[in-house]
């Protein structure tokens, strides 16, 4: 079987800086959060999004997000702002016109399309956190994972959700590797965090 060009590159996550290494607070000023614009069936998901917002506000970590007022996105944005933290929203014009932009977020960038939104959000952040969500969340997550697999960035990517929300997703990644469509190192490009305590540890000061 022919070797894939990616297999000859250094690992997507260098051994000395693996996904499980504590990321120092000094290196992270802003975290990009992908999450649903719906609340989901399990009320723990919305509560988790609000907890993340409060954690960021307490630690002085800026939130970068899609700027929406609905679902988990709205919970995270309002929580960080209520705690005196900062939030940078990035929303496509057509969604703003649908009146789903968070009115409390004063730092709102309006872009022309979803592609630009993803690029702008990613550029402003030092790390990525995915909370439960739907197709938009999965689209955003897969894209930044793909960029990392191509060695275009080395930003940490974390997954967090109650009720083993991400277990089917990580099982799919393992299946893709087992079927020979990706190298085993894609499994280490994301880290599943158990709770906000684990996230706080990743953001701990030296």
Characteristics:
206 residues, alpha/beta, Rossmann fold, 7-stranded parallel sheet, 7 helices
How would you describe this structure to a colleague?
This protein is of the alpha/beta class and 206 residues long. It has a single domain (24-202), classed as Rossmann fold (3-Layer(aba) Sandwich). The protein is 38% helix and 15% strand. The protein has helices at residues 43-59, 71-82, 93-97, 114-124, 135-149, 167-178, 196-202, and strands spanning 30-34, 62-65, 87-92, 107-111, 127-130, 157-160, 191-193. Strands 4-3-2-1-5-6-7 form a 7-stranded parallel sheet, with helices on both faces. Strand 3 (87-92), helix 3 (93-97) and strand 4 form a beta-alpha-beta unit. It is globular. The termini are far apart.
| Strand order, sheet with most strands | 4-3-2-1-5-6-7
Summed up, the helix count is 7
Low-confidence stretches: 14-26
Assign the CATH topology. Answer: Rossmann fold
Computed CA radius of gyration, to the nearest angstrom: 17 Å
Compact summary:
With 206 residues, the chain is α/β, with parallel strands linked by helices. 38% of the residues lie in helices and 15% in strands. It has helices at residues 43-59, 71-82, 93-97, 114-124, 135-149, 167-178, 196-202; strands at 30-34, 62-65, 87-92, 107-111, 127-130, 157-160, 191-193.
């Amino acid at each position: 079987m022919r070797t894939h060009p990616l297999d000859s590159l250094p690992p997507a996550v260098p051994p000395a800086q693996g996904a499980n290494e504590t990321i120092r607070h000094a290196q992270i000023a802003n975290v990009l959060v992908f999450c649903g614009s719906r609340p989901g069936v399990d009320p723990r998901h919305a509560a988790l999004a609000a907890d993340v917002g409060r954690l960021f506000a307490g630690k002085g970590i800026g939130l970068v997000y899609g700027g929406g007022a609905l679902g988990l996105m709205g919970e995270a944005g309002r929580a960080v702002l209520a705690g005196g933290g900062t939030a940078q929203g990035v929303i496509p014009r057509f969604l703003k016109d649908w009146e789903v932009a968070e009115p409390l977020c004063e730092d709102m960038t309006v872009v022309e399309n979803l592609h630009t939104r993803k690029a702008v959000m990613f550029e402003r952040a030092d790390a990525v956190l995915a909370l439960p969500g739907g197709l938009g969340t999965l689209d955003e997550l897969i894209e930044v994972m793909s960029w990392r697999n191509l060695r275009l960035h080395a930003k940490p990517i974390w997954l967090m959700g109650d009720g083993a929300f991400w277990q089917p997703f990580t099982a799919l990644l393992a299946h893709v590797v087992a079927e020979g469509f990706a190298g085993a190192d894609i499994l280490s490009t994301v880290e599943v965090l158990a709770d906000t305590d684990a996230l706080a540890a990743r953001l701990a000061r030296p």
